[in-house]
Amino acid sequence: MDTLRWILLAVGALVVAGIYLHWRWQEKRLVNTHMDDSESTAKATRKKFSLIQHKKTTKQVPSSPDREMLLVLHIVAIEGMLGGPQIVRVLEEAGLEYGDMQIFYRPCKNKDESTPLFSVANIVKPGTFDLSHMEGFFTTGLSMFMRLPGPVEPLAAVNEFLEKGHEISAALNAQLQDEQHSTWTMQTEQRMREEVAEFVRGIVSETG
User: Fold this and answer.
1) Listed residue (150, 159, 164) closest to 192, CA to CA
2) Sign of the CA dihedral with 90 first, then 128, 133, and 78 last
3) How confident is the model at residue 203 (pLDDT cuts 50, 70, 90)?
4) Three-state DSSP class for 75?
5) How many CB atoms lie under 10 A from the CB of residue 164?
6) Could you point out which of 64, 75, 140, 141 has its C-alpha 20 to 30 Å from the C-alpha of 42?
7) Around Cβ 161, how many Cβ atoms within 10 Å?
8) Helix or strand or coil: residue 131?
9) Which residues contact 137 (CB under 8 A, 6 or more apart)?
């Protein structure tokens, strides 16, 4: 009888292990599929974002028709997926608003300025969120976009962009990544700041 009990326990353990491993394989396959789509999503969302962020000059930096810069951050789930209700709560707490193109925007603090400072989209194509179905919504991550020049002086804008990126990723217990999906580091952040500073110098030199 004891032998039969041990056999049944062993079989049961193998079945549970098999189910778990199958579930993990399915989850990994789903995550990988979504990540494969993220680059095309980023391109599509950039185009959509460009339509929203109209080309406007700032008081601090003149506008140059030949110069613009798009900054991109990805916020990716460390394990599994990010849930819809959590995403909405965290983005709203970070000061973002849901917009008519079904993505979230960080409004400019200047009430007279209609151009958003930056936007947050779903990392999975088509990059949008449907607020009426967020209860059952899951995604592998978010993409943040900011076009320069924008409604705020570029160096101040990149400070808020990075600050919110860290804030949102920490609140979601997710990983911050650069445009190429490499892990975010202090060196990456410093490089982005330097690129923005160089961008500003280029505009100033062109406009005299």
Assistant:
1) 159
2) negative
3) confident
4) strand
5) 21
6) 64
7) 23
8) helix
9) 83, 84, 87, 129, 130
Q: What CA–CA distance (Å, rounded) separates 203 from 199?
A: 6
Q: Beta partners for 106?
A: 118
Give whichever of 3-12, 14-23, 63-72, 133-142 has the largest mean pLDDT.
133-142
Question: How many angstroms separate the CA atoms of 63 and 198, rounded?
Answer: 15
Residue type, 75: I
pLDDT, tens only, 109-153:
775 567 899 999 999 999 999 999 999 999 999 999 999 999 999
d(CA 144, CA 104): 9
Tokens of residue 175, six digits: 């990983």
Residues 196, 200: Cα–Cα separation, whole Å:
6
Element (H, E) at 202: helix 186-207
Quickly tell me which residue has 């997710």 as its tokens: 174
Q: Which of 123, 163, 120, 112 is nearest to 145 (CA)?
A: 120
pLDDT band at 160 (very low <50, low <70, confident <90, very high): very high
Structure pTM? Answer: 0.73
